[in-house]
Target: Cytokinin riboside 5'-monophosphate phosphoribohydrolase
Amino acid sequence: DKAEIRQSADHALENDPSQPIRQLLVAGGIDLQERKRLLVQGANALIVLPGGPGTFDEMWEMACARNLGMSQLPMVCVNIDNYYEPFRQMLERAWKDKLVKLRPHDIIHFASSAEEAVRWCEDAQHREAPFVELKKRKEALRSQSVLGSPIVETTPKRRISLVAKSLSWLSSFGHQEQTDEMQAR
Model:
């Protein structure tokens, strides 16, 4: 239950302020774009565990956002048993062929364990990530998801306030097929 999750995080903060707060957030939403927006909203970093097509979609979208300069949110893949090695190789090939703007390690970091990924994320808060400036016409930005749900605009102190709008903007292709699939479940 979401209320219990929030209470446990509040309890941890009250009882031991020296410990980092860890939250388990379950992102719902009426479409995949909204779900992805909810996953990154307020995040300091992204840790990608081995997963299936939904995880691949979320990871590629954030990798695209970083490469295009739409996000500076640090991202790390937990590459257990070289699970994400093909993804890393694709990024290396794209860099070699001059198809991406940022070096692969500036788009996404690969860690061999969850512990290493968490340490990398903690260190990432103290360094400045390369950022490509993207010129975007104001009228091209959306205030709604593809299916019409409003995108709540937030202005957190972190440098990810543009992520919510850019994720919705990036993900409009193929939304009807995704919606049909979600409704079939």
About this structure: The first strand starts at residue 46 and ends at 48.
